[in-house]
Amino acid sequence: MLTHLDEQNRPKMVDVSPKNETLRIARASGIIKMNKDAFEIIKKNTSKKGPVLQTAIIAAIMGVKKTSELIPMCHPLLINSVNVDVVEMPENSAFKLIVEVKINGKTGVEMEALTGVSVGLLTIYDMVKAIDKSMEISDIMLLNKSGGKSGEYLRF
Fold first, then answer.
1. Confidence of residue 1 (pLDDT cuts 50, 70, 90)
2. Position 102 in a domain
3. Counted domains in the chain
4. Where are the alpha helices (DSSP H) in 1-108?
5. What's the whole-number mean pLDDT along residues 24-39?
6. 111 is in an annotated binding site
7. What is the mean pLDDT of the chain?
8. Distance separating alpha carbons of residues 9 and 22, to the nearest angstrom
9. Which of 15, 126, 132, 139 is catalytic?
10. Is residue 93 a part of any domain in this protein?
11. Is 75 annotated as a binding residue?
12. Are 122 and 86 in contact (CB under 8 A)?
């Protein structure tokens, strides 16, 4: 039985009250590929809309914090920390965003990490779409998670 459906097959939010609070950590990543002009403008910090990567980092953090407002069955969480890394991938004219979220809580933070990555990448797209409308956002994935009943998950 799916945990977000009750006995009558109606949607429900999972009851986490019986669960123990544990340290829960999730890391997710995603990539945005673009043309060389857009990549260089971001890298050199010369976008007319301002500092693209710094804005994307703030957007990723905001995305983490707003996850329960965007994904219907996610619980609002008291976030301990959000760390966002940006990796330049010059061989592909791309950037990789990595978001790590930590809480002490009764439910996992995978959705928060994935939402943070998605919002951060969409922010990059928004800020340089005038230069390259053909950008591709891809490979959004959970890298690892720890804590809770299901324990550890490591993609690689």
1. low
2. yes
3. 1
4. 36-44, 52-65, 67-70
5. 98
6. yes
7. 94
8. 30
9. 126
10. yes
11. yes
12. no
pLDDT at site 105: 94
Q: Distance between CA atoms of 89 and 85, rounded to whole angstroms?
A: 13
Q: Taking residues 88-112, what's their average pLDDT?
A: 97
Task: Decide if 156 is inside a domain.
Answer: no
Please say whether the beta carbons of 128 and 41 come within 8 A: yes
| 12 and 81 Cβ atoms separated by less than 8 Å | no
What percentage of the chain exceeds 70 in pLDDT?
A: 99
Tokens read off for 36: 């060389």
CATH of the domain at 73: 3.30.70.640
Under DSSP, is residue 131 helix (H, G, I), strand (E, B) or coil? coil
Q: Which domain holds residue 48?
A: 22-144
Q: Tell me 106's DSSP state.
A: S
**74 annotated ligand-binding residue:** yes
4 annotated as belonging to a binding site for a ligand: no
Evaluate whether residue 48 is within a structural domain.
yes
Are 123 and 54 a contacting pair, CB within 8 Å? no
Q: Which residue has the tokens 């550890």?
A: 152
Whether 6 is catalytic is no
Average pLDDT of span 55-73:
97
| C-alpha of 11 from chain center | 24
Percent with pLDDT over 90 in the chain: 83
Mean pLDDT of the region 10-26: 90
